[in-house]
Structure formats: C-alpha cells, structure tokens
Design brief:
Length: 177
C-alpha cells in the first residue's frame, strides 16, 4: 500500500497527515511510506503524535507540535522538538531532537489530521484498521497488559474525538492490504 500511495499521490513536498484509530497500523504504514519515498529519492521526516500525547493529555498539546514542527517546516528551517519520554510510567519532556529540514514532513498518529490544521496539509490519509476489539488486542500486545485500562480509555477518547472533529470525512481513506 505504501508504494502505491507514494506513486499515486506524487508525494514530493508539504505536510502529510496519517490518522485513524489506535491499532489501525498508522505507524507501520508511515514507516513503510518513508521507505517507499526514499526508494524514489524523496527525502522526508516522520514525526509521531505519540511523541506529544499522554494518557492525561491526548490532544491539547497540538499548539506545541505546531510551534516546534509545523511553523519551522513551513519556513523551511531545520527545527527541533522535545518528545515525551516515559519514566516509571510517567511522561516527561525529553531532550531536544534536532531535525534537518526535508521537503516532506509526515505526521502520523491519532488527531494528526485534525480540522484546525487540515488546511496546512498537502495530503491527509486515514486508516480504519480492524474492529475495535482487534485494535485493542494489537495495542495491548504492543504496549503491555499493564496499559490495558489506559488503552480502553484512549479508544473511548478517540471515538469521541473523531466524531466531533469529523476527521475521517476530510481524509483519503486507505484500504488495508
């Protein structure tokens, strides 16, 4: 699917959002897309909303991402951000991560194609993934049984977010292979 998207949409520059519910395969697809673009000689930077979101703050951190990444990208400057690191199950702001400007910025994760910034994006993609139960099983397998309650609450949050924001409606829906 990533090869097809790289070719069909002619991704060369701008900001691309990859959104959808947790466990849908966004991170895997985004990494495959970066590889497919690189195979075609197209440089990109991949940022995950997981570098900002926390259990207690699933969405209101967006102004920080916009300030640190989107505005600098639009000015065509190298930029830095401070991704969250988890220490003893608690998020802390991590050290600066410097990023060399590339013509394509890919932001993947829940809320990445949000209405408030959608006009700034060259492309917005959506992955549905499997059923809610299967997606929960995937995320628990990935993050661990200890996070199950958080992941259930996260699924409830994102369901409400997507309904109010109308995210899927403004995205190109990608069918899983």
């Amino acid at each position: 699917m990533a090869n097809d998207v790289a070719v069909r949409y002619g991704l060369t520059d701008g900001i691309v959002a990859i959104d959808g519910p947790s466990g849908a395969g966004k991170s895997t697809f985004a990494a495959e897309l970066v590889r497919a673009l690189a195979d075609r000689g197209r440089s990109s930077v991949l940022i995950s909303t997981d570098d900002y979101a926390t259990w207690d703050d699933p969405a209101s951190w967006w102004p920080e991402l916009e300030r640190d990444l989107i505005r600098a990208f639009e000015r065509r400057h190298d930029y830095f951000y401070r991704p969250r690191i988890w220490v003893d199950g608690r998020p802390e702001i991590g050290p600066e991560t410097w990023i060399r400007w590339q013509p394509l910025l890919i932001i993947e994760g829940v809320t990445s194609a949000r209405r408030s910034s959608a006009h700034r994006f060259a492309h917005r993609f959506w992955l549905d993934g499997p059923s809610s139960d299967d997606r929960l099983a995937r995320t628990v397998a990935r993050d661990g049984e200890a996070d199950r309650d958080h992941l259930v609450a996260w699924q409830q949050f994102e369901e409400g977010w997507f309904a109010i924001d109308g995210t899927r409606d403004r995205c190109e829906v990608l069918e899983a292979e």
